[in-house]
Amino acid sequence: MRQCYFCTNNIKEVDYKESELLKKFLNFQSKILPREETNVCAKHQRKLARAVKRCRFLGLIPFVSR
Amino acid sequence: MEKNQNTYEIGYLLTPLIPEDKLDDNVSNLRKFIEDKHGLILMEGRPKAQKLAYSIKSFDSAHFGWVKFMANSEIINDISASFEKNDNVLRFLVIKPAKETGVVKLRDKKLIGRKKIAGVKKTEGMDEKTGIKSEEIDKKLEELLGV
To answer: Is B13's CB within 8 Å of A58's CB?
Structure first.
């Protein structure tokens, strides 16, 4: 089983400004990937979701894409 | 530090119509909004040209910058209102970043309690709380009972 990306890299808070990192956790439709696929722990998955939503609002990553 | 002082972060998008050399003037204007309301600027990210994922106010690109500051919770609405009034700001987002100096969690506290204190050796048959040997207690009891 893979470990949480943020825990292994000692990242406490997920930054909304790092759009390139956040893109890794989106699928081809720009939806947030579920925890089963991201292998991120529950705490960081919640923080990740919040960061993605903030990043979307500022137009750095898309809401939807096809 | 005053009460109700919180750390805030504002991420903003400036119009791409602003030339690179005039970006600093716009940023200093935004800083002025905060400093006028007695906000203390902690960190800042200079605006960088960024391609937008979708068009905002019919612009496909913008200058993305951010500022982290400390301000009173009562005046944050005034600061965001001044950002709204600025025509050069396409969009902005006010957030309260997570505290960096976290309080010790309950789980950590338990660990601290379990930690052995260096330099103190526990001798055999010694009471943990009082530090009196059990043999001494037995002797005293025998004396009292007169056995």
So the answer is: yes
Helical ranges in chain A per DSSP H: 5-8, 19-23, 35-38, 42-57
B62, B64, B95 member nearest A54 (Cβ)? B95
pTM across the whole model: 0.73
- Cβ-defined contact of A59 to B62 (cutoff 8 Å): yes
pLDDT band of residue B104 (cuts 50, 70, 90) is very low
Which of the listed CATH numbers 3.40.50.920, 3.40.50.300, 3.30.450.20, 3.30.70.60 matches domain B5-95? 3.30.70.60
* Residue A50 is assigned to a structural domain of this protein: yes
Of A52, A3, A46, which is closest to residue A31 (Cα–Cα)?
Answer: A52
Does B54 contact A59 at a Cβ distance shorter than 8 Å? Answer: yes
Closest residue in chain B to residue A57, using alpha carbons only: B93
Q: What is the extent of the structural domain holding A35?
A: 5-57
What are the φ and ψ backbone dihedral angles of B128, each rounded to 5 degrees? Answer: -65, -40
Residue of A nearest to B91 (CA): A58
Q: Distance (Å, rounded) from C-alpha B120 to C-alpha B26? A: 62
A56 and B13 within 8 Å at the Cβ level: the answer is: no
Confidence check: pLDDT of B80 > 70:
yes
We report the CATH number of the domain holding residue A28 as 4.10.640.10
Please give the ipTM for the structure prediction: 0.86
> Mind listing the pLDDT tens digit for each residue in A2-19?
899 999 999 999 999 999
